[in-house]
Amino acid sequence: MTYLVTGATGKAGRHVVSALLAAGERVRALTRNPAESALPPEVEVVAGDLTDPATVPFDGVTGVHLLTIGGDDYATLTTGPELVKRAQDAGVRRIAVLWNGDVGPVEEAVAASELAWTRLQPTDFMGNTLHLAPSIRAEGQVREPFSDVPAAPVHEADVGAVSAAVLTSDGHAGKAYTLTGPEALTARQRVARVSAALGRELTFVELTEAQARDRWRDQGLADDMIDTLVAWQGSPPPHAYTVTNTVAEILGRPPRTFDEWAKEHAPLFT
Length: 270
Ligand SMILES: NC(=O)c1ccc[n+]([C@@H]2O[C@H](COP(=O)([O-])OP(=O)(O)OC[C@H]3O[C@@H](n4cnc5c(N)ncnc54)[C@H](OP(=O)(O)O)[C@@H]3O)[C@@H](O)[C@H]2O)c1
Description:
Residues 4-210 form the NmrA-like domain. Helices cover 37% and strands 17% of the residues. It is an alpha/beta fold and 270 residues long. The chain has a seven-stranded parallel β-sheet, with helices on both faces. It has a two-stranded parallel sheet with strand order 7-11. The longest helix has 13 residues, at 156-168. Residues 6-13, 30-33, 49-51, 67-71, 74, 98, 100, 122, 124-125, 128 line the site of NADP nicotinamide-adenine-dinucleotide phosphate (NAP).
Protein backbone atom coordinates (compact mmCIF):
# COMPACT_ATOMS: atom_id res chain seq x y z
CA MET A 1 0.00 0.00 0.00
CA THR A 2 1.08 3.60 -0.54
CA TYR A 3 1.34 6.15 2.26
CA LEU A 4 1.68 9.89 1.78
CA VAL A 5 4.09 11.51 4.22
CA THR A 6 3.89 15.28 4.53
CA GLY A 7 6.81 16.99 6.25
CA ALA A 8 8.89 14.05 5.00
CA THR A 9 12.05 16.15 5.00
CA GLY A 10 11.60 17.25 8.61
CA LYS A 11 12.97 15.89 11.87
CA ALA A 12 10.00 13.62 12.52
CA GLY A 13 8.88 13.07 8.93
CA ARG A 14 12.15 11.40 7.88
CA HIS A 15 11.53 8.80 10.55
CA VAL A 16 7.94 8.26 9.43
CA VAL A 17 9.37 7.53 5.97
CA SER A 18 11.99 5.10 7.25
CA ALA A 19 9.53 3.30 9.54
CA LEU A 20 7.05 2.80 6.68
CA LEU A 21 9.81 1.58 4.36
CA ALA A 22 11.03 -0.82 7.05
CA ALA A 23 7.48 -2.17 7.27
CA GLY A 24 7.60 -2.88 3.54
CA GLU A 25 5.20 -0.11 2.52
CA ARG A 26 5.43 2.26 -0.44
CA VAL A 27 6.04 5.91 0.45
CA ARG A 28 5.12 9.07 -1.40
CA ALA A 29 6.86 12.06 0.18
CA LEU A 30 5.56 15.60 -0.17
CA THR A 31 8.01 18.49 -0.21
CA ARG A 32 8.13 22.00 -1.58
CA ASN A 33 11.70 21.36 -2.80
CA PRO A 34 12.13 17.86 -4.27
CA ALA A 35 15.68 18.63 -5.45
CA GLU A 36 16.78 19.15 -1.85
CA SER A 37 14.79 16.35 -0.23
CA ALA A 38 17.68 13.85 0.22
CA LEU A 39 15.23 10.98 0.76
CA PRO A 40 15.98 7.29 0.08
CA PRO A 41 15.84 6.37 -3.63
CA GLU A 42 12.85 4.04 -3.20
CA VAL A 43 10.68 6.99 -2.05
CA GLU A 44 8.40 8.64 -4.60
CA VAL A 45 9.20 12.31 -4.00
CA VAL A 46 6.50 14.72 -5.16
CA ALA A 47 6.39 18.51 -5.24
CA GLY A 48 3.49 20.06 -3.38
CA ASP A 49 2.48 22.64 -0.82
CA LEU A 50 -0.05 22.02 1.95
CA THR A 51 -1.25 25.61 1.68
CA ASP A 52 -2.38 24.79 -1.87
CA PRO A 53 -4.40 21.54 -1.51
CA ALA A 54 -4.73 20.99 -5.25
CA THR A 55 -0.97 20.30 -5.34
CA VAL A 56 -1.18 17.46 -2.80
CA PRO A 57 -1.47 14.08 -4.59
CA PHE A 58 -3.78 11.79 -2.60
CA ASP A 59 -4.56 9.45 -5.52
CA GLY A 60 -3.86 5.79 -4.74
CA VAL A 61 -2.96 6.61 -1.13
CA THR A 62 -4.18 4.46 1.80
CA GLY A 63 -2.95 6.58 4.69
CA VAL A 64 -1.51 10.04 5.29
CA HIS A 65 0.91 11.43 7.86
CA LEU A 66 -0.36 15.02 8.00
CA LEU A 67 1.32 18.14 9.35
CA THR A 68 -0.67 20.97 10.89
CA ILE A 69 1.77 23.73 9.95
CA GLY A 70 1.88 25.58 6.68
CA GLY A 71 5.31 27.15 6.53
CA ASP A 72 8.78 27.48 7.96
CA ASP A 73 7.46 29.83 10.65
CA TYR A 74 5.29 26.99 12.01
CA ALA A 75 2.18 29.02 11.16
CA THR A 76 -1.05 27.12 11.62
CA LEU A 77 -2.21 25.42 8.43
CA THR A 78 -5.62 26.78 7.46
CA THR A 79 -6.39 24.48 4.53
CA GLY A 80 -7.39 21.48 6.67
CA PRO A 81 -11.02 21.20 5.50
CA GLU A 82 -10.03 21.18 1.82
CA LEU A 83 -7.16 18.75 2.38
CA VAL A 84 -9.47 16.40 4.27
CA LYS A 85 -12.16 16.58 1.60
CA ARG A 86 -9.65 15.83 -1.15
CA ALA A 87 -8.21 12.94 0.86
CA GLN A 88 -11.67 11.47 1.45
CA ASP A 89 -12.69 11.89 -2.20
CA ALA A 90 -9.47 10.12 -3.27
CA GLY A 91 -10.24 7.10 -1.06
CA VAL A 92 -7.73 7.67 1.75
CA ARG A 93 -8.67 5.57 4.80
CA ARG A 94 -6.38 6.63 7.63
CA ILE A 95 -4.77 9.88 8.75
CA ALA A 96 -2.18 10.42 11.48
CA VAL A 97 -2.24 14.11 12.38
CA LEU A 98 0.89 15.57 13.93
CA TRP A 99 -0.19 18.44 16.14
CA ASN A 100 1.67 21.67 16.76
CA GLY A 101 1.01 21.92 20.50
CA ASP A 102 -2.68 22.66 20.33
CA VAL A 103 -5.77 21.30 18.63
CA GLY A 104 -6.24 23.56 15.60
CA PRO A 105 -8.27 23.73 12.41
CA VAL A 106 -6.61 20.72 10.77
CA GLU A 107 -7.30 18.48 13.75
CA GLU A 108 -10.89 19.73 13.86
CA ALA A 109 -11.42 19.06 10.15
CA VAL A 110 -9.95 15.57 10.46
CA ALA A 111 -12.05 14.76 13.53
CA ALA A 112 -15.21 15.84 11.69
CA SER A 113 -14.40 13.62 8.71
CA GLU A 114 -15.22 9.99 7.96
CA LEU A 115 -11.53 9.07 7.96
CA ALA A 116 -9.98 6.85 10.60
CA TRP A 117 -7.87 9.53 12.27
CA THR A 118 -5.32 9.45 15.06
CA ARG A 119 -3.87 12.56 16.64
CA LEU A 120 -0.19 12.43 17.58
CA GLN A 121 0.63 14.83 20.39
CA PRO A 122 4.38 14.67 20.95
CA THR A 123 6.08 16.82 23.53
CA ASP A 124 9.32 18.55 22.47
CA PHE A 125 11.45 16.46 20.14
CA MET A 126 14.86 15.46 21.51
CA GLY A 127 16.12 16.76 18.18
CA ASN A 128 15.36 20.34 19.23
CA THR A 129 18.58 20.05 21.28
CA LEU A 130 20.46 20.40 17.99
CA HIS A 131 19.96 24.16 18.17
CA LEU A 132 22.67 24.07 20.87
CA ALA A 133 25.20 22.45 18.52
CA PRO A 134 26.78 25.62 17.07
CA SER A 135 27.66 27.12 20.47
CA ILE A 136 28.81 23.74 21.82
CA ARG A 137 31.04 23.21 18.81
CA ALA A 138 32.41 26.76 18.90
CA GLU A 139 32.89 27.41 22.60
CA GLY A 140 31.85 24.39 24.67
CA GLN A 141 29.08 26.35 26.28
CA VAL A 142 25.36 26.96 26.02
CA ARG A 143 23.40 30.06 26.95
CA GLU A 144 19.79 29.25 27.71
CA PRO A 145 16.95 30.48 29.91
CA PHE A 146 14.76 28.34 32.19
CA SER A 147 17.57 25.89 32.98
CA ASP A 148 15.69 24.03 35.71
CA VAL A 149 12.30 23.62 34.05
CA PRO A 150 11.62 19.95 33.27
CA ALA A 151 10.43 18.48 29.99
CA ALA A 152 9.95 14.88 28.82
CA PRO A 153 11.21 15.11 25.23
CA VAL A 154 10.47 12.30 22.83
CA HIS A 155 12.92 10.87 20.29
CA GLU A 156 11.68 11.89 16.85
CA ALA A 157 12.35 8.35 15.63
CA ASP A 158 9.71 7.16 18.10
CA VAL A 159 7.26 9.73 16.74
CA GLY A 160 7.96 8.34 13.27
CA ALA A 161 7.56 4.75 14.40
CA VAL A 162 4.27 5.53 16.17
CA SER A 163 2.90 7.32 13.11
CA ALA A 164 3.79 4.37 10.88
CA ALA A 165 2.21 1.97 13.38
CA VAL A 166 -1.10 3.83 13.62
CA LEU A 167 -1.26 4.17 9.84
CA THR A 168 -0.64 0.49 9.17
CA SER A 169 -2.50 -1.25 12.01
CA ASP A 170 -6.00 -1.35 13.50
CA GLY A 171 -7.18 -0.04 16.84
CA HIS A 172 -6.02 3.58 16.73
CA ALA A 173 -8.97 5.37 15.12
CA GLY A 174 -10.36 8.36 17.00
CA LYS A 175 -7.54 8.38 19.55
CA ALA A 176 -5.20 11.17 20.68
CA TYR A 177 -1.79 9.98 21.83
CA THR A 178 0.49 12.09 24.00
CA LEU A 179 4.01 10.94 23.14
CA THR A 180 6.91 11.50 25.54
CA GLY A 181 10.29 10.05 26.17
CA PRO A 182 10.95 7.85 29.20
CA GLU A 183 12.05 10.61 31.62
CA ALA A 184 11.63 14.27 32.45
CA LEU A 185 14.88 16.24 32.24
CA THR A 186 15.69 19.90 32.77
CA ALA A 187 17.64 21.81 30.14
CA ARG A 188 20.68 21.70 32.43
CA GLN A 189 20.35 17.89 32.73
CA ARG A 190 20.02 17.50 28.97
CA VAL A 191 23.23 19.47 28.45
CA ALA A 192 24.94 17.28 31.05
CA ARG A 193 23.83 14.19 29.07
CA VAL A 194 25.23 15.69 25.86
CA SER A 195 28.44 16.46 27.73
CA ALA A 196 28.68 12.82 28.87
CA ALA A 197 28.07 11.57 25.31
CA LEU A 198 30.81 13.85 24.00
CA GLY A 199 33.23 13.13 26.84
CA ARG A 200 33.72 16.89 27.01
CA GLU A 201 32.87 19.35 29.77
CA LEU A 202 30.24 21.91 28.76
CA THR A 203 29.36 25.14 30.56
CA PHE A 204 25.75 26.15 31.09
CA VAL A 205 25.21 29.92 31.25
CA GLU A 206 21.74 30.80 32.49
CA LEU A 207 20.05 33.62 30.58
CA THR A 208 17.37 35.79 32.13
CA GLU A 209 14.02 35.87 30.37
CA ALA A 210 14.82 39.41 29.14
CA GLN A 211 18.17 38.25 27.69
CA ALA A 212 16.47 35.32 25.98
CA ARG A 213 13.81 37.62 24.50
CA ASP A 214 16.54 39.95 23.17
CA ARG A 215 18.38 37.05 21.58
CA TRP A 216 15.26 35.66 19.89
CA ARG A 217 14.42 39.19 18.67
CA ASP A 218 17.95 39.52 17.23
CA GLN A 219 17.40 36.19 15.46
CA GLY A 220 14.36 37.73 13.75
CA LEU A 221 11.58 35.96 15.65
CA ALA A 222 8.24 37.75 15.83
CA ASP A 223 7.01 38.92 19.22
CA ASP A 224 4.12 36.45 19.33
CA MET A 225 6.51 33.56 18.61
CA ILE A 226 8.79 34.81 21.40
CA ASP A 227 5.81 34.91 23.78
CA THR A 228 4.99 31.32 22.81
CA LEU A 229 8.58 30.20 23.44
CA VAL A 230 8.70 31.94 26.82
CA ALA A 231 5.38 30.41 27.86
CA TRP A 232 6.31 26.91 26.62
CA GLN A 233 9.85 26.86 28.00
CA GLY A 234 9.27 28.89 31.17
CA SER A 235 6.03 27.38 32.44
CA PRO A 236 5.13 24.42 30.26
CA PRO A 237 1.79 22.65 30.61
CA PRO A 238 1.85 19.41 32.63
CA HIS A 239 1.70 17.23 29.50
CA ALA A 240 5.12 18.60 28.47
CA TYR A 241 6.86 17.03 31.47
CA THR A 242 4.54 14.21 32.53
CA VAL A 243 5.92 10.93 31.22
CA THR A 244 3.40 8.71 29.40
CA ASN A 245 3.61 5.04 28.54
CA THR A 246 2.04 5.52 25.11
CA VAL A 247 5.12 4.91 22.95
CA ALA A 248 5.75 1.59 24.73
CA GLU A 249 2.08 0.58 24.50
CA ILE A 250 1.95 1.19 20.76
CA LEU A 251 5.41 -0.06 19.79
CA GLY A 252 5.74 -2.89 22.32
CA ARG A 253 9.16 -1.67 23.42
CA PRO A 254 10.39 1.16 25.67
CA PRO A 255 10.81 4.63 24.19
CA ARG A 256 14.31 5.66 23.19
CA THR A 257 16.21 7.55 25.89
CA PHE A 258 17.83 10.96 25.73
CA ASP A 259 21.19 9.26 26.33
CA GLU A 260 20.65 7.19 23.16
CA TRP A 261 19.73 10.33 21.24
CA ALA A 262 22.84 12.16 22.52
CA LYS A 263 25.15 9.29 21.52
CA GLU A 264 23.58 9.01 18.05
CA HIS A 265 23.98 12.75 17.45
CA ALA A 266 27.35 13.31 19.15
CA PRO A 267 29.14 13.91 15.81
CA LEU A 268 26.93 16.93 15.19
CA PHE A 269 28.17 18.55 18.42
CA THR A 270 31.88 18.13 17.71
N1 LIG B 1 9.92 20.04 17.02
C1 LIG B 1 9.15 19.77 18.07
O1 LIG B 1 9.57 19.77 19.23
C2 LIG B 1 7.70 19.44 17.84
C3 LIG B 1 6.91 19.07 18.93
C4 LIG B 1 5.55 18.76 18.71
C5 LIG B 1 5.04 18.85 17.43
N2 LIG B 1 5.85 19.24 16.41
C6 LIG B 1 5.29 19.31 15.06
O2 LIG B 1 5.96 18.41 14.23
C7 LIG B 1 5.96 18.89 12.91
C8 LIG B 1 7.29 18.70 12.29
O3 LIG B 1 8.22 19.31 13.12
P1 LIG B 1 9.74 19.15 12.78
O4 LIG B 1 10.49 19.71 13.94
O5 LIG B 1 9.98 17.76 12.28
O6 LIG B 1 9.82 20.19 11.59
P2 LIG B 1 11.01 20.53 10.67
O7 LIG B 1 12.15 19.59 10.88
O8 LIG B 1 11.24 22.01 10.81
O9 LIG B 1 10.36 20.27 9.23
C9 LIG B 1 9.27 20.99 8.80
C10 LIG B 1 8.62 20.22 7.67
O10 LIG B 1 7.43 20.89 7.31
C11 LIG B 1 7.35 20.87 5.89
N3 LIG B 1 6.53 22.00 5.49
C12 LIG B 1 6.48 23.23 6.04
N4 LIG B 1 5.58 24.00 5.41
C13 LIG B 1 5.06 23.23 4.42
C14 LIG B 1 4.09 23.47 3.43
N5 LIG B 1 3.47 24.65 3.29
N6 LIG B 1 3.78 22.46 2.58
C15 LIG B 1 4.39 21.25 2.69
N7 LIG B 1 5.32 20.97 3.63
C16 LIG B 1 5.65 21.96 4.47
C17 LIG B 1 8.77 20.98 5.42
O11 LIG B 1 8.86 20.42 4.14
P3 LIG B 1 9.71 21.04 2.90
O12 LIG B 1 10.55 22.16 3.45
O13 LIG B 1 10.52 19.87 2.41
O14 LIG B 1 8.68 21.48 1.95
C18 LIG B 1 9.50 20.10 6.45
O15 LIG B 1 9.50 18.75 6.06
C19 LIG B 1 5.52 20.34 12.98
O16 LIG B 1 4.20 20.40 12.50
C20 LIG B 1 5.54 20.67 14.43
O17 LIG B 1 4.51 21.54 14.74
C21 LIG B 1 7.15 19.53 16.58
